[in-house]
Write a structure and sequence with these properties.
single chain, alpha+beta, Cathepsin B, Chain A, 8-stranded mixed beta sheet, 10 strands, 13% strand, globular
């Protein structure tokens, strides 16, 4: 089943390159307070998320039913998250979608089996590390109603590694990968590893996003001459770091932001905080960019609680989702399959 794209309006705003990150408290702006307070109603949701287009009576009733189901689901999910740093779940831009619609629209990445990481963990790693602090991570983007997370994750890694090498941080074209990576299926989904294989084998140069803008739909591949400027992939690695997340930290510090495939079924309802539970589908379905970690588990207002170490993960659902477009995932235990298939890019 495909949801009517004219009804699903996902707000896309760019976050700042480096945003305040002291606390892990769930954002409590006017939107969050209004929609996740005691008086949650469908009309407020429709107004806040611009669901103001006229829809048929049956469609309206269906969306309202999905919304009501979501509020019940949130109560269940939050019953397991009692610690101050724990993830919180509630009303967001996906709350009028059924769980199947959400999966069909947004969780379209596939994972190729990766070999276990053969190396050793890196000694002397910093307690916390965030590539955003180096100004080499581009702003959060929004894939919209297109299953292009696999392309966003790969391009995100490439543009960061390019900037780490001394070049200016430039957003590269996700649409170019979406249209031209023939081993994948555009908005219908794909594999980051297959995309990286295509980039490595063809030495295709990704051009800036300004030259090949994102359209949230699969189009005809636009070819550029070999003399045209751009960024190409020389090589990449893909490994399974389950049980070796400390070694994964070393790879992130050494090589730059990492592409990861995760189980993001519960992320439909995520508002903020550190995810420690609820990744229950047991299959990888979404691609993201791991940009940092924090083993000190900084919590500004926590007393008498044990700090939770976490990964800092950039998503591609816009900056209004989660922690200004980011999600925090507990380090240890391979939560959400964060360590199952992790790729590092070399330019």
């Amino acid at each position: 089943m495909r949801v009517d794209h004219s009804y699903v309006v996902v707000i896309a705003t760019l976050s700042t390159l480096v945003s305040p990150r002291c606390c892990l408290n769930v954002r409590r702006d006017d939107t969050q307070t209004k929609l996740n307070g005691s008086a949650v109603d469908f009309d407020s949701f429709r107004e806040q998320f611009l669901r103001i287009s006229e829809v048929g009576r049956e469609e309206f009733r269906l969306r309202q039913l999905h919304f009501q189901s979501a509020t019940k689901r949130h109560a269940y999910l939050n019953s397991f998250s009692t610690a101050p740093q724990s993830a919180k779940y509630g009303i967001n831009q996906f709350s009028d979608l059924s769980q199947k619609e959400f999966r069909d629209l947004y969780l379209r990445a596939s994972a190729d089996r990766a070999p276990l990481f053969p190396g050793l963990k890196t000694q002397g790693l910093p307690a916390k590390f965030d590539w955003r602090d180096k100004a080499v991570v581009a702003p959060v983007q929004n894939q919209e109603a297109c299953g292009s997370c696999w392309a966003f994750s790969v391009v995100g890694a490439m543009q960061s590694v390019h900037a780490i090498g001394g070049s200016q941080l430039v957003q590269l074209s996700v649409q170019q990968v979406l249209d031209c990576s023939f081993q994948n299926e555009g908005c219908n989904g794909g594999s980051p590893v297959r995309a990286l294989n295509w980039l490595k084998q063809t030495r295709v140069k990704l051009v800036p996003q300004s030259e090949y803008p994102y359209k949230a739909e699969t189009g005809i591949c636009h070819f550029f001459s070999q003399s045209h400027g751009g960024v190409s992939v020389k090589n990449f690695t893909a490994h399974d770091f389950s049980g070796q997340e400390e070694a994964m930290m070393g790879q992130l510090v050494k090589h730059g932001p990492l592409v990861a495939i995760v189980d993001a079924v519960s992320w439909q309802d995520y508002l903020g905080g550190i995810i420690q539970h609820h990744c229950s589908s047991q299959w990888s379905n979404h691609a993201v960019l791991v940009v940092g970690y924090n083993t000190t588990g900084t919590c500004c207002h926590c007393t008498g609680t044990r700090d939770i170490p976490y990964w800092i993960v950039q998503n591609s659902w816009g900056s209004t989702w989660g922690n200004e477009g980011y999600v925090y995932i507990k380090i240890g235990g391979n939560v959400c399959g964060i360590a199952d298939s992790v790729a590092a890019v070399f330019l």
